[in-house]
Write a structure and sequence with these properties.
With about 270 residues, this protein is mainly beta. Helices cover about 5% and strands about 65% of the residues. The strands form 2 sheets. A 10-stranded antiparallel beta barrel has the order 1-2-3-4-5-6-7-8-9-12. A two-stranded antiparallel sheet has the order 10-11.
Length: about 270
């Protein structure tokens, strides 16, 4: 499962740095900052049955380059993690308050079509292809064995953007649009909870929104505010047994993820 995404990313980065291909590396930046994270789950009647919320920390690398006007190619890699509050329930419905640890890696390649307007503004149409992988570890208050889930989300995104070059290397910019997962995979590891099986779950695919806006202070430093999200409808149902006895079905319920962040980045000349 993981070999193909890694090979795809390696291929993309190889193209970026292949000077003989006609690409020109425009800039490289690194950054870090806090993120406010919210994950919610809902039952079949639409009632909220779980919420995780709290702050995480993220660090990333971004590359941009131009091959031939008006196209701009880019790559973003992001590492993130932290512990958030969990307010939910057990498989049997018993209310539980605990903590959830998150760690993840996100990779995204982008292609932007840029058009300069007479006013001096730059109008963009940006498309992206991404892979987001995270590990969710819910601390079990009744034992030393945490409930661990691993998600792999592959998505497409598209949206407009606008920027104003300004003066003395200053720049204002904003991007926004929609994001749609095209492949979802969840390893819920329920065999660690006493079930005989561990069927893969595939959360349903729904459109969500993203927004980012920033200000380039000078030739090296930039600050930005971002909003990102996912929306998942319920996964398929899978029958499971315990010690060979049927005990019902498992499902990943309807879920939503919202992320609000602010970060500072340093651009290398």
């Amino acid at each position: 499962m993981m070999n193909k995404p890694f090979l795809g990313i390696l291929f993309f980065i190889t193209i970026l740095f292949d000077g003989g291909s006609g690409y020109a590396l425009t800039w490289v930046s690194v950054g870090a900052g806090p993120e406010y994270f919210s994950w919610k789950e809902f039952d079949s009647a639409g009632r909220q049955v779980l919420e995780e919320k709290g702050y995480r920390v993220a660090a990333w690398l971004h590359l941009d380059q131009i091959r031939k006007d008006p196209f701009l190619f880019g790559y973003s890699g992001k590492l993130y993690g932290g512990s958030v509050n969990y307010d939910g329930q057990t498989w049997g419905g018993t209310p539980v308050t605990t903590d959830t640890g998150y760690s993840g890696l996100q990779n995204e390649g982008s292609l932007t079509w840029r058009y300069p307007l007479p006013s001096g503004l730059l109008l963009d149409l940006k498309t992206g292809l991404g892979w987001d992988r995270w590990r969710r570890s819910i601390k079990n208050p009744f034992s030393n064995s945490d409930q661990v889930e691993v998600y792999d989300i592959f998505y497409l995104k598209i949206g407009p953007g606008v920027s104003y070059p300004g003066y003395r290397n200053q720049r204002l910019w904003m991007n926004f649009g929609g994001k749609l997962p095209f492949y979802t995979f969840e390893d819920a590891q329920i065999n660690r909870l006493g079930f005989d099986q561990n069927p893969p779950l595939h959360p349903g695919k729904q459109v969500s929104l993203y927004l980012s806006m920033g200000y380039q202070l000078n030739s090296s430093w930039e600050i930005a505010a971002v909003y990102d999200s996912y929306r998942f409808s319920p996964s398929q149902k899978e029958s499971v047994t315990q010690n060979g006895t049927p005990v019902g079905t498992v499902i990943q319920p309807e879920s939503s993820l919202d992320l609000y962040g602010i970060h500072a980045s340093y651009r290398f000349p």
